[in-house]
Amino acid sequence: MADIRLEGVGHSYDGGRTWALRPMTWTWRSSRAYALLGPSGCGKTTLLNIISGLITPTEGRVLLGDRDVTGVPTAGRNIAQVFQFPVLYGDMTVYDNLAFPLRNRKYPRDEIDRRVRQVSELLGLDAHLRTRSRRLDPGRQQIVCLGRGLVRPDVAAVLLDEPLTVVDPALKWTLRSKLKEIHRDTGHTLIYVTHDQTEALTFADEVVVLKDGAIVQAGEPGELFLSPAHEFVGHFIGSPGMNVLPASVRDGVVRVGEVAVGRATGDLPPGPVNVGVRPEFVRVGAAPSLPGIEARVTAVDRMGPYELVRARVHDRDVLAKVESGSGHRPGEVVYLGFDRAYLFRDSVRRAALARLGPGTAGGGADRPPDAGRTGPPGAPGTAGPGGAAGPGGAGHGRGGPGEAGPGSTGSTGSAGPAAGPGGGGSGA
Ligand SMILES: Nc1ncnc2c1ncn2[C@@H]1O[C@H](COP(=O)(O)OP(=O)(O)OP(=O)(O)O)[C@@H](O)[C@H]1O
Ligand SMILES: [Mg+2]
C-alpha cells in the first residue's frame, strides 16, 4: 500500500474563475483512517473525486506512491469509493453485488466466497445474501454499498463520501465502529467524508478540516479540540464551539476593552486580535482575580453532567462549561479566567495567551497556563483533553501551541495544509 500524494492539486469548475478546491499539496499516509470534515460546498466531494479519478484536476498531480495517476481513469487506480446514496445492481442479489468487484478482477471462486462472507458477517448482511438488493430498504442498500467498498483486499484506499446519510441513526454508531474494526483488519487507507464533527472525531486517526476549498488544519481529534489553528476549527469542532472575544495587543499585553487578560506568546505585532477560548477552559469565579474579566451571568443551562454558564462581557456572550451544582445564577457578577486560550488574527492562530505575572511573564512559556490539566467537565469523548493528543499532538513533531499559523501544524511532515488568508499554496 502506498501514500496518496496531491501535488499542487486544485480544481475549478468554471474555467478558473473560482476554485472549488484551492491548489494544495498534501499527503494521505498509507493505512491511516482520515476524516475529511467541512461544511457543505467546501470541496469534500471534489477532493475525493480527484483522488478516485472521477475528476481530473485543473492543476497539479496525483501520485499513488511513486506512480503519477493524474490522467489515469478510476478503473486503473485501485481505489474503492462509496457514495452518499446507494449505487447497486438492483436485480442482483446482495451476495452477487458484494462479489461483483472481486469477480470483475478475476479473483478465484473460493477467495470471493470467503471475502463476501467475511464482509457480510461484519456488516450484518448474512440474512439478506440471497435477497435482490432492490428489495432492501435504502439504509440496508447503503450497507451493501459499504460492503462493496470494503470487499476488495487489494485496494490502495477506500473513499467514503458521507456514506451513512441514509442509514438509521441507531445503526450509524454500530456501523462506524464496524468500519474502524474493518480498518484495523485490512489496513486500508480510509478517507471518510462527513460534515458531522462527532462522526469525524469518533472515527478518525486524523481529521482534516476543509473550508472554502482549502485545508485549514489537520490533526488528531484531541489536537483539533485543544489547539485550533483557525477560528473556523474552533467553531466547527466542539459543542458549543469556541468563544471569540475581540481584543487588542500592545507591548505583548492582551486587553479586552481596558482589562489586561494576559500576555501574547512570541512576537505578535500590536493590533487587534480575537481571543479564542473554549467553554471548557473558561473559569468562572465569584471574586475578582487577576487576570479576570468582569462579566454578568445572563443564563445558566443545566445539561446534566455539567452546566453552561452564559456571561456577558461588553457586548459579547461568553459560554463556560462548569460542573453541575455550581450555584451560579442569572444577574450575578462573576470574574472570568481563561485556562487555555489563543490569539487569532485574520482568523488564523498567531499565539497563545499566557498568564500575566511572575509565573509566565519572562518565563518564555509558549504554551498556555494549565495546558496539561485534564478532564474539564463535559469535554467530548475522544476530543477531550483527556484523549490521546496533548498540546502539539502526539508523535508527529508538530508545532506546539503558540507557534502559530496552520502552516506549522502540517500533519504529515511532507505537506503543510494550504491555508491562511488568501488560501492556496502549501504550508502557507
Ligand atoms: N459539477 C459541478 N459543476 C459546477 N460546480 C460544482 C460541481 N460540483 C461541485 N461544484 C461546486 O464546487 C464547490 C465544492 O463542491 P463539493 O460538492 O465538492 O462540496 P462538498 O464539500 O462535497 O459539499 P456537500 O457537503 O454539500 O456535499 C461548491 O461550490 C459546488 O457548488
Ligand atoms: Mg459532497
TrEMBL record:
UniProt-listed PROSITE patterns: ABC_TRANSPORTER_2
Highest taxon, organism lineage: Bacteria
Domain ABC transporter intervals: 4-237
A molecular-function term among this protein's GO annotations: ATP binding
Family annotation (CDD domains): ABC_Carb_Solutes_like (cd03259)
Chain spans, region Disordered: 356-428
Entry keywords, A to Z: ATP-binding, Cell membrane, Membrane, Nucleotide-binding, Transport
Biased composition (Gly residues): 381-410, 419-428
Cross-referenced PANTHER family: ABC TRANSPORTER ATP-BINDING PROTEIN (PTHR43875:SF14), MALTODEXTRIN IMPORT ATP-BINDING PROTEIN MSMX (PTHR43875)
UniProt-recorded name of the protein: ABC transporter ATP-binding protein
